[in-house]
Structure formats: structure tokens, C-alpha cells
Amino acid sequence: MTDYKKIFKESLDKLKEEGNYRIFADLEKIAGNFPQALNYQENSVSEVTVWCSNDYLGMSQNQLVIENMIEAINKVGAGSGGTRNISGTNHYHVLLERELCYLHQKESALLFNSGYLANQATLSTLGKKLPDCVFFSDEKNHASMIQGMKNSGARKIIFGHNNLNDLEKKLKASNAESKIIVFESVYSMDGNFSPVARICELAKKYNALTFLDEVHAVGIYGKRGAGVAEEKGVMNKIDIIQGTLAKAFGVIGGYITGNKEIIDFIRSFASGFIFTTSLPPCIAAGAYASIRHLKFSDIEKEKMFAVVNKLKSYLKKYEIPFIDSGSHIIPVIIGDAKLCKRASNILLDEFNIYVQPINFPTVPRGTERLRITASPNHTDKMVKDLATALKSVFNQLNIVKAA
Q1: What homologous superfamily is domain 4-60+298-396 in, according to CATH?
Q2: Class of the domain covering 63-296
Q3: 159, 220, 257, 315: which could join 167 in a potential S-S bond, CB 3.0 to 4.6 Å?
Q4: Domain map (residue ranges) of the chain
């Protein structure tokens, strides 16, 4: 007989032995005092500074966002009460989708309960429904995109990361009836940008659709926070822009935008949309307020990048190895899973600084890292404390510093 418990245990033991077993920090953000949080451990509670949040602009603490959410929950209650088709389309959803159309200058938009679901449901539907469909996928695409393409059953051709020559070679060699180029604008683990405009040129040349994941860019890049495609002036050349409400916009949820036929196609055929209870209206209200605020405010972005640049200067001064791709994401390279976990533990236990280790399979083995993200709310003292703590950790663990 199959010993299921043994299989589960052995698999988990292997993860622990490799240093890839995930342990969740029990955190409680302190309202009005972000990025400070309470860290609950077995017999103690301590205040820590969070340096790995995707709440890039601190909008989860923005008073306007909070007030709009409270107003909505007092007005219509907590949950939506159903799928979008069965009583779950609240006016707050309609307003938010309309605002997303304005943001990305598209005809239509569709909300999902997460960015993961938006990617998975959209790509799986396209792959299933389009005739003789082939995906051309950047090798560093997010797991949600990979899963969506896999679930579709369509063919997938992987091109080298941001490698335009490789992409064109593979597009040219394909006789597929339907082609979709799937890529991101900002890759979250390295913080680097894709050549969005050049990829659009190749898509036009080879009659391919473009699917662009802007989750780590919306709210931050572009004049109105619409992302890298806006910054590069090519939003009108992207067929489907996918984004999230859970990072720079500070709440939760995902979405796609595009022309009305594409969005209606996904709305009508994507089971991940059709059979899911819609987002609570208060979430939609908060996202709406956040998007509208960031469309006209540069203060949050300017403060965040000031913190980012200051931290990078300290890291260079202390010879801490990190990838500088010019974005807001700062990956500090450790290169070993166990050392990475130990570094994270020392930061937490000795310095009250929380940075989650990033190990395989999120990043390739040998590239394990501490993925640091700044916010407008990090002070000069917090920046200096983090840099000093990293210097101490690298010395304690004898981690090789930058040349």
C-alpha cells in the first residue's frame, strides 16, 4: 500500500535539507506606521522594519484609500455575494474597470481576484480557444503565466530572457496560425526591464498578439502610473496588458485590459473568471481611490526612488553585491540557500529587520538572494541601519562581497 504520509514527509525533509523550506513570518503591520510591523514568535513579540514588502508606495496605509474602503463597507457590506454573473457585479466593480480603461487607454477591462488568476485564466483560455495557438514565452516569466500556458494545452516556445534575436528567430520559424508573445515589463527577481517597444515591433512583423504583465510596474512607471508601456509610449501596441492591484496600488486583485472583443472573449470563456466570487466591493473602492490618486501624484514615487538610490549608495560603499537594473527592486545576492536563510534569520533576530530569503524554485540554484524593496516611508535611519546590518551579516557568514 502507498504510504502517503511518508511521501509527504520525505519531500518536506528534502526541502529542509536543501534550505528551501519556506517559513512564514507572523507579522502584523502597524497602521499609520508602515513599514513597521509586529513580529509574533513562539513566546515573544517584537517590532521589526519590513524591507521586502510589495506595497511599494505604501498605499495600503494611504488615508484616502482607507476612508474609501470604510465608506464602501458601511454602504454595501463586506462580501460581493456572488460571481460576476450571479449578483456579484457591484457598481464599485464597474467604476474600477472603467478607471482601468482610462489608465491604460484601452476599450475594456476585466477584474480578477488576483494577478495570478488573471494570468492563469487569460492565457489558458487563449491557448485553448485560438486556432493552432503557440505561445512565445520569455524564460523568466512568472509561475502564473507558465501555469496558464501549460493549462491551455497549447504549444509553448521559450525564448532567451530579453533576447530579441532568439525571439525573432523562433517567430520566423513558426508556421502557427495564432502566435502570442508573453512577457513582463519588470522582472521581479532581478528588477530588470524588458525591451517592450522592440518586442512590439517583432509582434507586428510576425502578426503575433502581445501579452504584457505589468504587475511590478503599474503605479510606479509612466506619467500616470500605467506602467512601462506608458513610459515607452507603446500602450496602444500591446494587445493585452495585465496588472495587479496588490502591489503599488496597495490592496488585492488583478486585471486585464485590451480592446473590447478580446476582453469580452475572456469574460465569456475563462472559467477562472466565470466561476469565482467577485472581489469584495470595498476592495474595488480602495483600488479605485488608489489608482486615481497615483494618476495625479508623483510624491510617493519620488520619495520611494530617493530611498532606493540612497540604499544603493550605501550598498556600493559597503561592497554588498546586488543587481542594479535601474528599477525599484534591489536583489542582494547570497548565492547559497542555507546561507541566505541564515542571513535572513540574523537580520531578524539581531537587528529587527525582516527580509525574506528568495530560494529555488523562485530563482535558479546558486543565485539565492535577499530581495529588498524600499518604500516612501523608509527613513534615512532605516536605510543606514539596513546597510550596516547587511555589512555585519556578510562579515559574520563570510559571504563573498562585491569586487
Answers
A1: Aspartate Aminotransferase, domain 1 (3.90.1150.10)
A2: alpha beta
A3: 159
A4: 4-60+298-396, 63-296
pLDDT digit string (tens) for the chain, length 403 residues: 999 999 999 999 999 998 889 889 999 999 999 999 999 998 899 999 999 999 999 999 999 999 999 999 999 999 999 999 999 999 999 999 999 999 999 999 999 999 999 999 999 999 999 999 999 999 999 999 999 999 999 999 999 999 999 999 999 999 999 999 999 999 999 999 999 999 999 999 999 999 999 999 999 999 999 999 999 999 999 999 999 999 999 999 999 999 999 999 999 999 999 999 999 999 999 999 999 999 999 999 999 999 999 999 999 999 999 999 999 999 999 999 999 999 999 999 999 999 999 998 889 999 999 999 999 999 999 999 999 999 999 999 988 766 5
Concerning whether 381 is annotated as a catalytic residue, the answer is no
Q: Is the pTM of this model over 0.90?
A: yes
The catalytic residue among 156, 170, 247, 341 is: 247
- Could you tell me the sign of the dihedral formed by the alpha carbons of 18, 20, 23, 27, in that order? positive
